[in-house]
Specification:
This protein has 296 residues and is of the alpha+beta class. It has 6 helices and 16 strands.
Length: 296
């Protein structure tokens, strides 16, 4: 009888735990953004415009759907109104292409993640142009991450704007016209990023992930490559400036003309490609070890 009562209580608790979690951005504003922007419109082009992800609830960590308190468009627009001046100089249309929050649960901690992909769009003479498309993942580790999702989303939006400003400062904005009829359509499936259509990748540097994704290589900087063994069947690399013979640590990755490498910590690890997927030939434990050394 006691076991039946215990099972009944557990089932009852987790039935309640599956209730949705609602997320609101109302307590936050964007910071550290230098440009003068006003967001005239927010377009939610996600495939599912209701759910924003899943969380874990209850003693059994049952999946529970997560939703905004209002809608993605209203939450984002309210955040922008609190963060930017209404008479700012640069009018933007922000399109939400992808937003997903989720959690990994371990015995000693929980990890909360927010993935975000935004399009920065302007309108000129009746035509629409996409200036930039962000791709950001934010992570937070706590004993209970249920309250971290709003914060992660705001950080992801903020980082998207900072990346946009960095592209402007580096004169790395390329306008791509968008038809008005497709403005509300989710573009991620239709668009093949330029790195995927490149027939070959020359010896070059990629200063940022966006340079890699959009295939804007730096062919002019001279650099030397040093390889060292890493694990059983892999290697990693360091690169040095051809002029100063100093280690280059501040670029996202490089190509030796045959193979692509991505920076983790202060070393560069080879990327393997299969179809449209690039993967690192290394283990999670190796990556953690590299990052611990890099931060010391």
């Amino acid at each position: 009888m006691k076991w039946k009562l215990l099972i009944f209580l557990l089932i009852g608790i987790d039935a309640l735990a599956q209730k949705p979690q609602y997320v609101s951005l109302e307590k936050y504003t964007l910071e550290y953004i230098r440009g003068s922007y006003r967001v005239e419109r927010v377009i939610d082009a996600r495939e599912d415009t209701t759910r924003i992800g899943y969380t874990h609830k209850g003693m059994m960590n049952v999946h529970a759907p997560a939703f905004f308190q209002t809608s993605a468009e209203k939450e984002f627009q309210s955040l922008f109104l609190r963060s930017f001046a209404v008479n700012a100089a640069t009018p933007l249309i922000i399109r939400i292409n992808h937003l997903d929050v989720y959690e990994f649960v371990y015995s000693s901690k929980q990890l909360a993640f927010a993935e975000l992909n935004l399009s920065f769009i302007i309108q000129e003479d009746g035509s629409y142009f996409e200036l930039f498309r962000s791709a950001v993942i934010m992570e937070d580790a706590l004993m209970d991450v249920s309250r971290a999702h709003a914060y992660n989303i705001v950080l992801a939006i903020q980082q998207s704007f900072l990346d946009f400003e960095h592209r402007i400062a580096g004169n790395r904005i390329w306008k791509e016209e968008i038809q008005a009829s497709t403005l509300h359509l989710r573009p991620l499936e239709e668009r093949s990023y330029k790195i995927l259509s490149a027939d070959s990748v020359p010896r070059c540097l990629f200063h940022t992930f966006y340079d890699f994704r959009d295939f804007h290589p730096d062919r002019n900087t001279d650099f030397a490559i040093s390889l060292e063994s890493w694990g059983e069947n892999s290697s990693r690399a360091t690169i040095r400036s051809g002029e100063k013979n100093a280690k280059i640590k501040d670029v996202w990755g490089f190509s030796d003309g045959k193979k692509l490498y991505m920076r983790i910590g202060n070393r560069y690890h080879p990327l393997e490609r299969k179809d449209s997927i690039f993967t690192l030939n290394t283990t999670h434990a190796q990556v953690q070890a590299v990052m611990q050394v890099a931060w010391q």
